From TrEMBL:
[4Fe-4S] cluster 1 binds at C188, C191, C194, C248. Binds 2 [4Fe-4S] clusters per monomer. Pathway: tRNA modification; tRNA-queuosine biosynthesis. Its main location: cytoplasm. Belongs to the QueG family. The active site is at D133. It holds the Pfam family QueG_DUF1730. PANTHER family: EPOXYQUEUOSINE REDUCTASE (PTHR30002). Monomer. Residues 179-208 form the 4Fe-4S ferredoxin-type domain. This is Epoxyqueuosine reductase. Cob(II)alamin binds at R61, D133, N154, L157, L168, S216, C241, D242.
Length: 311
């Protein structure tokens, strides 16, 4: 069985690489004992803001065996989305790099399904589910357990060779595999650049982000008006925020992705500040046809742009 597990794990990692994943690690499906008190405290202190869904399925978040019947292994994968492309008008409202192209949920889910089908063809009867940031799975905890990197002070997973500009996703499957048993050492050291640079002071302690203060939360998750306490503190971000990643020294190793689907719409990078302030719903639908930005809807994006104009 051990030999088979090693063989299957290698097959899976090789196929993941072929599909374009930057890395792949495997951990035993088990209870996340270390994360339990941290999650409970974070929720109790209401750092999830209006993301009330975070209060649901507490047990399933900590134990994937409750989420997927017969779960034995967590295959964690990372997919690079870094790009050196930037918006031309430096005064225009900014969009996080991850939302430049086609919605990553769609792109990566299809790749995960291909990987699962490959496993079923090569290994035999394999049951499992694919997860891309859309279910009660603690992505970073499993990525860390799988040896993909460590949790940085900005709470992102950081990889020594790739930085942190990548999406995390999982296949939770019902077969035993060869597990990567050595979590990566924490290499943040005494660096506090992400904490110091956060425009809204959302990183309240190493590895602890007050989500209710995070610009990504304020511009995407928050459905009500953005509180006036953040006037002048949004660093001109209208959808998401890359500040804590941009200042991270480990991202000097980030290399541009090669995924065609993640390339921005031709008009996106060329739009001026005036274009954004006068954006119509027709332009919004055209530029963000298959983008994750549609999550904010036209009303949400224009709310954010108006808020940036406050003083």
């Amino acid at each position: 069985m051990l030999i088979a597990a090693e063989k299957y794990s290698k097959l899976i990692k090789d196929e993941a690489k072929r599909l374009g994943f930057a890395f792949c690690g495997i951990a035993k499906a088990d209870f996340l004992e270390e994360e339990a008190p941290r999650l409970e405290k974070w929720l109790k202190e209401e750092m999830h803001g209006e993301m009330y869904y975070m209060e649901n399925h507490f047990d399933k978040r900590l134990d994937p065996r409750l989420l997927v019947e017969g779960a034995k292994s967590i295959i964690s994968l990372g997919f690079n989305y870094f790009t050196s492309d930037i918006q031309i008008d430096k005064d225009s409202p900014k969009i996080s790099r991850y939302a430049y192209g086609v919605d990553y949920h769609t792109v990566i889910k299809n790749k995960l399904k291909s990987l699962l089908h490959f496993m079923q063809d090569e290994i035999g009867e394999v049951g499992g589910r694919a997860f891309v940031d859309s279910a009660p799975v603690l992505d970073r905890a499993w990525a860390k357990r799988s040896g993909l990197g460590w949790i940085g002070k900005n709470s992102n997973l950081i990889n020594r060779k790739k930085g942190s500009f990548f999406f995390l996703c999982e296949l939770i499957v019902d077969i035993e595999l060869d597990y990567d048993l050595a979590p990566t050492k924490d290499y943040c050291g005494t660096c506090t650049r992400c904490i110091d640079a956060c425009p809204t002071e959302a990183i309240v302690a190493p590895q602890i982000v007050d989500g209710s203060k995070c610009i990504s939360y304020l511009t995407i998750e928050l459905k009500n008006e953005i509180p006036d306490q953040f006037v002048g503190k949004m660093d001109n971000w209208m959808f998401g925020c890359d500040v804590c990643q941009d200042v991270c020294p480990w991202n000097r190793f980030a290399e541009p992705h090669t995924e065609e689907s993640f390339k921005p719409h031709p008009d996106l990078l060329e739009m001026t500040k005036k274009d954004w302030e006068e954006i119509t719903e027709e332009t919004f639908q055209r530029v963000f046809k298959k983008s994750a930005v549609k999550r904010a809807k036209f009303s949400g994006l224009t709310r954010n742009i108006r808020f940036l104009g406050k003083s």
